[in-house]
Amino acid sequence: MQANSVSNDSQRASMSKLQIFLENMQPPPPVENQEERLEETLPPPEMAISMSKKRSRLPKRAEAEEIFSFSSVISKLLCRIPAVLLVLVIVFLWSSSTTVISGNIFHLCVSSRKLNNLYCLSAGTQPNFEIPVSIVHNTSNSIVDDFVENPVRISDNITENGRDGVVANAVKIVQEQVRALRSRTANGNSGGHCNGRGLFVYDLPPKFNKELLAQCYDMIPWMNFCKYLSNEGLGEPIMKLGKGWHQTHQYALEPIFHSRVLKHPCRVYDQNEAKLFYVPFYGGLDILRWHFKNVSGDVKDSLGLELVQWLQSQPPWMKNSGKDHVFVLGKISWDFRRKNNTSWGTRLLEHDQMQNPVKLLIERQPWHSNDIGIPHPTHFHPHSDEDIMKWQLKIMKSKRNNLVSFAGAARPGAPENIRSVLIKECVSADTWKCRFLDCDSGACGQPESIIELFMESEFCLQPPGDSPTRKSVFDSLVSGCIPVLFDPFTAYYQYPWHLPEDHTRYSVFIDQEEVRSMEVNVVERLMKVSVREREDMRRYIVYELLPGLLYGDSTSKFDKFQDAFSITMNNLLERISILDSTSVN
After folding, report:
1. Mind listing the pLDDT tens digit for each residue in 23-59?
2. Taking CA 69 as the corner, what is the angle to CA 64 and CA 71, rounded to the nearest 5 degrees?
3. Per-residue pLDDT reduced to its tens digit, 301-346
4. Sheet holding 457-462, edge to edge
5. pLDDT tens across 397-456, in order?
């Protein structure tokens, strides 16, 4: 595997990915009427009568009269009961599941996946890869270009011959943007050397965080979500995996980060001593609480709008228009950028006032340099250096009986997705070559099943799902399994502070266009990677990357390592120092 070759492949894939999203993204197909389906399952009154006990046959006229009289009484009684039940069911569907149906996740969550599978909650996310007009027309050389209300699609504005050039220019801008973010990466552990870089944490009204967390019991209609948000967002312990392992949900980043930032050594309690201002708004949980309820866009947007108005009354915000403020949002950027013709998510990041602050997200929006990707929370939350070193030793000694593994589910509603191709290749290969963990069957509901699979595998396939990024990428890295990526937007353009520019050191890239067109068999391609190459990549993952991808628990203390939280905070403080020095000059 040559770095230049892989880099070129990833750039071509970037262009292919953008073209697919730009030209083929269609609104979700309507789901069949739920009332009709329910009515079909309820027996008509005549059926209820025909199931009654047999009697001796009467003369036809008497039989007719008796049947009419009897059926009139019974029908009235029986019809009322199903009618009441039908109304109750329809009300329940309307009040708790309309978003599921309208968001095109009914098939994924109800028909195909077990309802207790939390990966179901990510289904239906609708990323939008439309390129800003300024890039299409080459009217701006700025790395940051504001999204317009109705972005112009490539196919609407340029000829066939010009398409590749525009897409290539857009990809180049994203690459430059990520490279610029990496160039300002902080070196070393600056947590103990605040040097006047005070961190102020807003004490927001409870409705913006604590009260959202308290709604966990009915946030998801079919389950109590609280066990996944207990222990300051870490979730309940997983005893089978040992110390530090928890039932952490992929959307729990907000309370996890908040609990750590409250204990940061640079925290100050006087706004006048601060250089960086942390806004602990649980915007992801705000989205999730309305996700399964039939409410208007105005209702979904109301709390975010209240927050913006509240911040505008604060002196620190007014001083720098929010440039020295930071938000941590536990869902992907697209979920906070709802367009007028969709019902998904909120418009929090579409407000003009929200363009200046830094937004830390599990998936960034490619055209905004103030959107910065940070790792998804995994299930492992060490307390000390010793916890990390013990885990490193364990996964380096782990016997990897599988060459390749894939934990996921097909996307039958997304024909351009390559998951079905990968599943077919995997199940048709020899057992030792590829193992498939079918999330459609509910097999992914237990985190230990996934972690154990990854610990036994050399390579873990990580195709895009409902959006380019996957939490599973970090689960595989933490397990010492080399991720195989098919879209550069899955990781390479997302996490500038936590993953290096040279992605050949920790991953294998295979262009998804080659997979889709059957030009390559992924399992056979991976068999060609030498044992020496695998060992080198695994050592780099385990000893260089792994500590920085973990979020320690709320009282963790590290001397030898920096975890994901420490790396993020050091870079934020470094960034604010540059901003402060620029403003002085």
Report:
1. 443 333 333 333 333 333 333 333 333 333 333 344 4
2. 90
3. 999 999 999 999 999 999 999 999 999 999 999 999 998 778 889 9
4. 434-438, 402-408, 457-462, 482-485, 508-509
5. 999 999 999 999 988 878 788 999 999 999 999 888 999 999 988 888 899 999 999 999
> What DSSP state is assigned to residue 298?
H
Host H or E run for residue 373: strand 371-373
Token look-up 């940051």 returns 144
Whole-number Å distance between alpha carbons of 278 and 265: 14
Q: Tell me how far apart the alpha carbons of residues 128 and 105 are, in angstroms, rounded to a whole number.
A: 17
Give the residue from 467, 553, 513 showing the smallest Cα distance to 13: 513
Reported for 255-260, long-range contacts at CB under 8 A and 24+ positions apart, including other chains, are 255/209, 255/213, 255/229, 255/282, 256/232, 256/377, 256/551, 257/328, 257/360, 257/551, 257/565, 258/209, 258/233, 258/282, 258/328, 259/232, 259/233, 259/554, 260/551, 260/552, 260/554, 260/565
Angstrom distance (rounded) from CA 452 to CA 397? 13
Tokens of 553: 């628990």
Contact (CB, 8 A) for 233 and 252: yes
Confidence of residue 174 (pLDDT cuts 50, 70, 90): confident
Say if residues 20 and 173 touch (Cβ distance below 8 Å).
no
Q: Which two tokens stand for residue 100?
A: 């599921």
Distance CA 356, CA 325 (A): 8
How far apart CA 467 and CA 363 sit, in angstroms, is 9
Neighbouring residues of 268: CB distance < 8 A, sequence distance ≥ 6: 198, 199, 200, 274
Q: Is 371:361 a contact under the CB 8 Å cutoff? A: yes
Interatomic CA distance for residues 578 and 551, integer angstroms: 26
Task: Enumerate the β-bridge partners of residue 462.
Answer: 485
Helix (H) or strand (E) holding 447: helix 447-455
